[in-house]
Amino acid sequence: MSSPEVHTGLVVMGVSGAGKTTVARLLADRLGWAFAEADDFHPRKNIEKMRAGTPLTDADRRPWLRAIAAWLAAWADSGENAIVTCSALKRAYRDVLRDAGPRIRFVHLDGDRDTLTRRLGGRSGHFMPPELLGSQLADLEPLAADEDGVAVDIAGTPEEVATEALRRLGLTARTV
After folding, report:
1. Which residues contact 63 (CB under 8 A, 6 or more apart)?
2. Does the chain have fewer CB atoms within 10 Å around its N or its C terminus?
3. DSSP string for residues in the chain
4. Do the beta carbons of residue 65 and residue 91 sit within 8 Å?
5. Phi, psi dihedrals of residue 83, rounded to the nearest 5°
6. Cα-Cα-Cα-Cα dihedral of 91, 95, 101, 105, to 10°?
7. Can you give the pLDDT of all 176 residues of the chain as single tens digits?
């Protein structure tokens, strides 16, 4: 008897402006996996706090992270793979997400401060003000060697970044 297939939850992580949503959508389309945007899991009070320019605390993030983990677990339980965006800045946050299932992997979209600042200044309609980038960079704990994931530089186009993430993760895009 063969062992059951292990389903994967892929978390596209990084600070605001790294391109998480764009790259995650490309990955979801290429792989044919379910997709969710972590911002949709925030309680209203978190969004209002960030909109006002106040960084979230660990206590603010806890229910948000648990909701994302529950979403990932539901997809794994249904026998499907899924991708979600999430800043996942600290290892402790990633530990909460890892509780979602047997295989949670991370793609850390990594870029220099100038690139991130330029991207944040060029977008509109997002509740995260560019002024909070500094606090996110201060909180960021890059993936450790024992964490299942890869860091990918955001210097290329979103398509190039997605291709590199797939290559480094050893995942193959579905053929249509």
Report:
1. 43
2. N
3. -PPPPPPEEEEEE-STTS-HHHHHHHHHHHHT-EEE-GGGGS-HHHHHHHHTTPPPPHHHHHHHHHHHHHHHHHHHHTT--EEEE----SHHHHHHHHTT-SEEEEEEEE--HHHHHHHHHT--S-SS-GGGHHHHHHH--PPPTTSSEEEEE-SS-HHHHHHHHHHHHT--PPP-
4. no
5. -125, 135
6. 0
7. 333 456 889 999 999 889 999 999 999 999 999 999 998 999 999 888 888 878 788 899 899 999 999 999 999 999 999 999 999 999 999 999 998 877 899 999 999 888 887 777 655 554 555 566 777 888 899 999 999 999 999 999 999 999 999 999 999 988 65
HSE value, Cβ hemisphere, 13 Å, CA-based, for 70? 7
Q: Comparing C-alpha atoms, which of 123, 113, 136 is closest to residue 54?
A: 136
Amino acid at 143: L
Q: Give the right CATH number for 15-169 from 3.30.1330.60, 3.50.50.60, 3.30.310.50, 3.40.50.300.
A: 3.40.50.300
